[in-house]
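We were asked to recover a plausible sequence for a given structure. The inputs and outputs are reproduced exactly as logged, with field labels preserved.

PROBLEM: sequence recovery
POSITIONS: 111
GIVEN STRUCTURE:
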């Protein structure tokens, strides 16, 4: 949820996410505590529902790595969007966020 809050620059609630995944609120709460949350399908559904790139979410949650991007960008299923990114270095530069660059949003209460 912290990653989604950061990417969307607004608070994301459980009420927004559990219907997207097609599960009840209590099931979502249990699922969010699991070690394998979110999986690739959950990233895909959440990304599409919130207007985020599902591949970016998968990368941020460690489900895919730079080698996977390389295959995507240069593979047989590359799209026009992927063609705009010339190398894997471009992907790394765009998705790299340094901890020092992060700032706490004032409208979000402390944990």
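RECOVERED SEQUENCE:
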């Amino acid at each position: 949820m912290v990653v989604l809050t950061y990417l969307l620059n607004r608070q994301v609630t459980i009420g927004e996410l559990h219907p997207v995944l097609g599960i009840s609120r209590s099931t979502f709460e249990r699922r969010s505590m699991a070690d394998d949350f979110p999986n690739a399908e959950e990233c895909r559904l959440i990304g599409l529902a919130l207007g985020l790139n599902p591949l970016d979410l998968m990368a941020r949650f460690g489900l895919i790595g730079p080698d996977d991007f390389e295959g995507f960008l240069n593979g047989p299923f590359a799209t026009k969007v992927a063609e705009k990114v010339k190398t894997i270095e471009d992907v790394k530069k765009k998705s790299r966020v340094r901890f020092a660059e992060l700032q706490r949003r004032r409208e979000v209460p402390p944990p």
